Amino acid sequence: MQIQETKKTIFSGIQPSGILTIGNYLGALRNWVQLQEEYNTYYCIVDMHAITVRQDPSVLKKRCLELLALYIACGLDPEKNTMYFQSHVSAHAELGWLLNCNAYMGELSRMTQFKDKSAKQGNNIGAGLLTYPVLMAADILLFNTDLVPIGSDQKQHLELARDLAERFNNVYGQTFTVPEPYIGKSGARIMSLQEPNKKMSKSDENVNAFISMVDPADVVMKKMKRAVTDSGSGIIYSPDKPGISNLIDIYASCKGVTPKEVEKEFEGAGYGTFKEAVGTAVAEILTPIQQKQKELLSDKAYLEKIFTEGADKARYTANRTLWKAQKRMGLAPRKL
Question: Is residue 334 assigned to a domain?
Fold first, then answer.
């Protein structure tokens, strides 16, 4: 008798705290679509992470739906993926508290993002900003996650999740799967169009620094034409040419080719010609996604069905893990 191989589990999530960029798509969402065929996948909208910074409630609610619609518009199939809002599965917060009780102040205060973000907030630093990496660890560990798709700048958070899982397992017995990183083969790090040594960010104050997933084709082209390049004029992929190398990465990711192939295609071309080609390639990807997202947002009942059914499915698996952890720590056991 042939034994059926169990699929490995992948978990990931995005905050609904801003409009996603082409970097989010090329570095994360597009890879997620490929992973849905071969893994057991949970793709969460991490709304509880978003509130570590105060949000306008009506805007946050709107962005949650927009992000769910974007997930589907980018190609995530609701029949193949579990998609839901983090706040609809209370086990995230409950396990977060158990892990908080096993985390150390020192390791949390050393987190790079905490140091960067707290420096901008002055004296009124919310406790959630310090402890949200523990909630992130809970997100991952709830589903016995094997792999977490991350960019190179997110390794520190995954390392904390691994440390907490191992610490808990060593103290209370084997409870959690220790997750491994999954880093996509291409497009994993798209940089700012204005500061190409810095990652493209949806929170950048300079709107010309990023291409938003909702930018129409004419805006995409204007931003691309304003993109910072380097001295010289050749389309050359090199560490000492971060501006043009970033545009090559974007074009290569959009077209599914290598940087070397891009260099060959545009040999002898100038920056202006290449920027126009990159803008066109990006717009060709974004336009059908934008149209599909708009269509989905016109059917709120369908979206509600997706996130409700997703939460039900996620809740079942998450609760089993949570209750196991509670029992191991000596809390009164619950019935399944």
Answer: no
Assess whether 184 and 222 both reside in one domain.
no
- CATH number of the domain enclosing 144: 3.40.50.620
Asked if 175 and 314 sit in the same domain, the reply is: yes
Q: What share of the chain is helix, strand, coil (3-state, %, to 5)?
A: 55, 10, 35
CATH code of 258's domain: 1.10.240.10
Whose CA is closest to 208, among 189, 228, 190? 228
Q: How many CB atoms lie within 10 A of CB 102?
A: 17
Q: Which of 8, 61, 80, 117 is catalytic?
A: 117
- Residues whose CB is less than 8 angstroms from the CB of residue 147 and which lie 6 or more positions away in sequence, other chains included: 8, 9, 10, 39, 179, 180, 181, 182
Show pLDDT as tens, one digit a residue, over the chain (336 residues). Answer: 344 458 899 999 999 988 899 998 998 888 889 899 899 999 999 999 999 888 999 999 999 999 999 999 999 999 999 999 999 999 999 999 999 999 998 888 888 776 666 656 666 777 888 889 999 999 999 999 999 988 766 788 899 999 999 999 999 999 999 999 987 665 457 999 999 999 898 878 899 999 999 999 999 999 999 999 988 888 999 999 999 999 999 999 999 899 999 999 999 899 999 999 999 999 999 999 999 999 999 999 999 999 999 999 999 999 999 999 999 999 998 776
- Catalytic one among 199, 223, 241, 275? 199
User: Can 294 be counted among the known catalytic residues?
Assistant: no
Which residue in 8, 202, 255, 292 is the catalytic one? 202
Q: In total, how many domains does the chain have?
A: 2
Residues 176 and 63 in one domain: yes
Enter the tokens of residue 213: 């997933």
117 is catalytic: yes
pTM, 2 dp: 0.89
Three-state DSSP class for 237?
Answer: coil
Longest distance between any two alpha carbons in the chain, whole Å: 72
Q: Is residue 202 part of a domain?
A: no
Active site residue 305: no
Residue 4: inside a domain, yes or no?
no
- Which residue range forms the structural domain that includes residue 251? 207-294
In a domain, 336, yes or no: no
